[in-house]
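input
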Amino acid sequence: MIAALRGTVTHWDDTTSIAWIEVQGVTYEVRIPAFAAEWIDSVRDLPDTLIYTYYHVSERTPQPLIIGFPDLAARDFFRKFIEVPDVGPVKAVRALTFPVSEIAGWIESEDVKAIQQLPGIGQRLSQTIVAQLAGKLALDAVAPSAGRASSRGGDRSGVREDAIEALVALQYTRREAERAVMEAMRANTALDAVEDLIRAVLEQQSPA
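output
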């Protein structure tokens, strides 16, 4: 069982949702759910990134499948999600196109119609999901996942998001803010405080 990988994301293909994670000279192929695509792209080339994983292999799918998540809450939700009849790991990873907290909220409010927005999830399966999971999801899955696990990779993710929000408040567009923050973090991997990261971005953007 591979519970997590800590290393560097050396490759990300958003068309196949496949990331390559290099860990001490070994590169793992990891499938990333669509809701985490922006996150995995933002940590590309950053060292010491922590990715929580679900490892799957069975008689039907003998080729091992590693699925990656940005935090424990998302992985724990995934584990519960695949326990629903007719929802296996392959279908689940394709279905998670919305944030886990949002999907969990739909389940808790028994919003069958909203759940049907997920790829491959029809009306009957939506009803089954509600019947199986409503009232059984952890609070951290239902709440917005702004907080991250207390690891260096998780801490940097929270710092990154806070810096982006601060730059948006300074009239940057979200795309501009995300690009500027990623460039600053790649240029200086020691940045681990919001104030320092914002200062680096502003210095980077100022004319020479």
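quick obs: The longest strand covers residues 4-13.
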